[in-house]
Amino acid sequence: MMVRDYSCCRLMPEETRGGIHPYPELLYVLSGKVQITWRGVCYTASPRALVLLPSDTPHQVVALSKEADIWYAELDFGEDELFPGMENNITWNELQCSPESRPVLDPVFEMTLELVTEAICTEKISVSEYAKRLCLLDIQKLLLFIRAYLERDSAVLSFDRNEDGDTTVALMRFMESRYSQPITLKMLADFVHLNPSYLIRDFKKHTGSTPIQYLQMLRMNAAMCYLAATDMSINHVAEQCGYPSIHYFSQLFKKKFGVSPTDWRKKTKSAARTKR
């Protein structure tokens, strides 16, 4: 499997995108509203709609709003038949273009979709062969979730089954990939569709810490790495670790390690030189 072509683009009302090609395609609406004409049928797609376009089917995309942002990826599967069949494509696209009936899948699906979006829209997919392969694996995961939903595989779909900590794992992965960004308890609760109080109790049951404590651990571990291995300013380290205020970062760091970030860096680098 390979990505034949991809792009993140902004559509204006006078523009028409699309065509026909011998490769299946994923199309995701980031913002605005678009009309997708596929196989002669018109669909109205709003943000977070992920549309499947099988190979050799004509399609056109037009912005209905003042502007609309989308990304698409054309896929060459080779011998792999991972892309859903036509009937399932129709069912999925109808659901995606109807927000009130759009299915809520496992939080891992949402997180994976965000990772693919980031890889395509920030050009990470083209940085290296490893980045490209990681994105391909995430696309495969999306398609497997979609097929599981369409084929009603409840063992894969259900994220209410938290006996073995599936929701907790999803939250951990979410924070591990976004620790440098602003994250609130409400954001985490919305991500897994749980009440914040229940989320805290459940996460602590499986990990021994609250979600915010886990996030702080990730950020502090990242900070130690930056302080020990780079010459970044303390302010830059704070920003890279998700702290908008250097004073708040320094306060938390000193509370945890007993010294300021600057003193910790000096001691760590001095000890490293001594060992040499």
From TrEMBL:
| Residue span(s) of domain HTH araC/xylS-type | 169-267
A GO molecular function for this record? sequence-specific DNA binding
PROSITE patterns on file: HTH_ARAC_FAMILY_2
- The residue ranges crossing the membrane are none
The UniProt entry, under Pfam families, shows: Cupin_2, HTH_18
Q: Which keywords does the record carry?
A: DNA-binding, Transcription, Transcription regulation
Q: Residue span of the signal peptide, if any? A: none
Q: Which domain of life is it from?
A: Bacteria
| Name this protein carries in UniProt | AraC family transcriptional regulator
